[in-house]
């Protein structure tokens, strides 16, 4: 993603204000951040569901932000699967579990469809073998979410995007869905990006990206938190410093040795000279 912006016509809102991010094949990432920080918007841009107002998105060598609708629908049918927030938005409620899987595979090339995991094996992998012929609207929330995941991976996508896949589930269902996301990601070598507001979900991902005000504010790698210097040197302070060092505070930045930069708030204010 290169310098992505997203606005909405007729609305005075900038959902994304310059996102630069590289996701490597096979990576597993959780997007975090306060409500309205742009997480879902970013996911729909990555999934080729919406287009950026400015900026570029590459899937491998291909620029999906420039593709026409015809190519984009092919990308969505074969290479990138998006699970929207709320399992039912991803499923046909009046159809059975097996029919939903069949429907999600309609856009696949016939040769790939023949090689793909059989419907029955896929349903069994997500613990729904007994529900194969059950109508979605009669399933529990956890069963629907597992079916939505099965449909999302049924096409063997390179990239799986999931918006809040574990919200509104019991702890048991949450853990089951999470274990399946990681397990299927491993088995299929799929790159996985989820949006979540649940810290216990995020901490199962080796990389976290925290969105703030439409930008990447911080990143976590293997349990350590980092702030990220963005385009034009923009730096978000960790939120617990923001009350103490509010917008407009004058700071001085000085290097200290080779690896440290010191921010100081010299003179005039409470705590003057504090470092
Ligand atoms: N279709 C739209 N029309 C107008 N504004 C929108 C639209 N979609 C999103 N927005 C606005 O863009 C901003 C980012 O929204 P987005 O849904 O991406 O945030 P989020 O971080 O996913 O929030 P949440 O955690 O509440 O789902 C918000 O201010 C939202 O109101």
N to C succession of SSEs: EEEHEEEHEHHHHEHEHEEEHEE
Tell me, what is the CATH class of the largest domain? Alpha Beta
Radius of gyration: 21 Å
Helix content estimate:
25-40%
Pfam family, one: ABC_tran
Keywords: ATP-binding, Nucleotide-binding
InterPro entries: AAA+_ATPase, ABC_transporter-like_ATP-bd, ABC_transporter-like_CS, ABC_transpr_LolD-like, P-loop_NTPase
Domain ABC transporter: 1-238
Q: Can you put this structure into words, describing what you see?
A:
With 275 residues, the protein is an alpha/beta fold. It folds into two domains: 2-212, P-loop containing nucleotide triphosphate hydrolases (Rossmann fold), CATH 3.40.50.300; 237-275, no CATH class. 28% of the residues lie in helices and 24% in strands. It contains nine helices and 14 strands. It has helices spanning 39-46, 69-78, 97-104, 110-115, 119-125, 141-153, 171-188, 199-202, 239-242; strands at residues 2-7, 14-19, 28-32, 54-56, 58-59, 62-63, 80-83, 159-163, 191-195, 207-212, 215-221, 224-227, 252-256, 260-264. The protein has a seven-stranded mixed β-sheet, with helices on both faces. A hairpin with a 2-residue loop joins strand 11 and strand 12 (224-227). Helix 3 runs parallel beside helix 6 (141-153) and helix 6 (141-153) runs parallel beside helix 7. The protein is elongated, with a radius of gyration of 21 Å. Residues 271-275 have low confidence and may be disordered. The site of adenosine-5'-triphosphate has 12 residues, from helix 1.
């Amino acid at each position: 993603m290169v310098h992505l912006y997203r606005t909405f016509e007729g609305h005075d809102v900038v959902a994304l204000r310059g996102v630069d991010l590289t996701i490597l094949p096979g990576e597993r990432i959780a997007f975090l951040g306060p409500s309205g920080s742009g997480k879902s918007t970013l996911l729909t841009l990555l999934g080729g569901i919406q287009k950026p107002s400015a900026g570029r998105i590459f899937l491998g060598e291909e620029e999906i932000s420039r593709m026409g609708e015809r190519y984009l629908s092919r990308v969505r049918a074969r290479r990138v699967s998006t699970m929207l927030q709320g399992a039912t938005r991803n499923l046909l409620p009046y159809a059975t579990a097996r029919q939903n899987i069949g429907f999600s595979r309609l856009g696949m090339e016939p040769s790939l469809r023949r090689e793909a995991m059989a419907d029955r094996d896929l349903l069994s992998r997500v613990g729904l073998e007994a529900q194969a012929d059950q109508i979605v609207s009669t399933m529990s929330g956890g069963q629907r979410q597992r079916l939505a995941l099965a449909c999302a991976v049924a096409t063997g996508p390179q990239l799986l995007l999931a918006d809040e896949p574990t919200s509104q589930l019991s702890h048991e269902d949450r853990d089951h869905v999470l274990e399946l996301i990681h397990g299927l990601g491993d088995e299929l070598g799929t790159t996985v990006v989820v949006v979540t507001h649940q810290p216990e979900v995020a901490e199962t991902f080796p990389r976290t990206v925290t969105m703030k005000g439409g930008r990447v504010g911080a990143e976590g790698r293997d349990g350590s938190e980092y702030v990220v210097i963005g385009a034009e040197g923009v730096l978000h302070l960790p939120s617990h410093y923001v009350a103490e060092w509010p917008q407009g505070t004058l700071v001085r930045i000085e290097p200290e040795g080779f690896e440290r930069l010191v921010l100081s708030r010299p003179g005039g204010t409470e705590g003057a000279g504090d470092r």
